[in-house]
Amino acid sequence: MKILIASDLDRTLIYSAAALRLGVPDARAPRLLCVEVYEGKPLSYLTETAAALLDGVARTGAFVPATTRTREQYGRVRLPGPVPRFAVCANGGEILVDGEPDTGWRRRVRRAVADECGATLDEVLDRVTRTADPAWLLRARTAEDLFAYLVVDRERLPLVWVKELTEWADERGWAVSLQGRKVYAVPRPVTKSAAVAEVVRRTGAERLLTAGDSLLDADLLLAADHGWRPGHGELADSGWTAPHVTALTTAGVAAGEEIVRAFAEAVDVVVDAAADGRG
Questions:
Q1: How crowded is residue 108: how many other Cβ atoms within 10 Å of its Cβ?
Q2: What is the predicted pLDDT for the residue at 1?
Q3: Residue 151 and residue 188 in contact, taking contact as beta carbons nearer than 8 Å
Q4: The predicted structure's pLDDT at residue 272
Q5: What is the pLDDT of residue 218?
Q6: Residues with pLDDT less than 50, the chain
Q7: Could you give the count of Cα atoms lying within 13 Å of 221 in the half-sphere of its Cβ?
Q8: H-helix segments, the chain
Q9: What is the pTM of this model?
Q10: Taking Cα atoms as reference points, which of 146, 141, 143, 116 lies closest to residue 128?
Q11: DSSP 166-222
């Protein structure tokens, strides 16, 4: 049976220093591998054990990163193993094939947004920037001319503002997600599940495994034969689950390792103790 494994990256497989949640004395902390550098500084990590397992999974050809990152942001990530044949970026707005954007898929997504959404990107961006308070809004950006995201001071961000934006956006066919220091506003037709379904169609995969931590990953998890969510993030905080989704209690980078281990077991990847950092 051909298996496809589609996983979110940030706070699911890879973690910033602030999101690691090591939770053990320094002398017992796992060895970490840096997989992203930004402006000359290390940014994202996974454990060496997870790296060894992911290398094995990637070599089976089954692994498909499915991220909300733009193509440029995804390009900074150097995951273990061979570069995946397919990758999903911009929350499903882009499919990369051997690193190049699939222009047919791009046109298809943009047509769906134009047909199904009651507000344009410019209107959404105007709404969020006009109602946001400079006391907690750090930056406002757009991604791939598809969706908007804000970088905020999380401690000062009023959750009532997020609630009001969510209600306003929902009426216009957009979804809102709060992930760490970022607030995303994404058109509902732009989904990871739709892009991954296209990859499944092209590869002829018979079984789909997925993982994710945020509300923007819920559709991807629901589309899977089996999924995993870590013990942190929007989905865990809201108590979201589904019968075929394993809700881990583990949080932080250790959850990422647990998820990759489950992926490896599904495709019969075996990593010896010396290779996975436990020797």
A1: 15
A2: 80
A3: no
A4: 58
A5: 97
A6: 273-279
A7: 23
A8: 48-59, 71-75, 103-116, 121-131, 159-170, 192-203, 218-222, 233-238, 253-266
A9: 0.92
A10: 141
A11: HHHHHTTTEEEEEETTEEEEEETT--HHHHHHHHHHHHT-SEEEEE--SGGGHHHHH
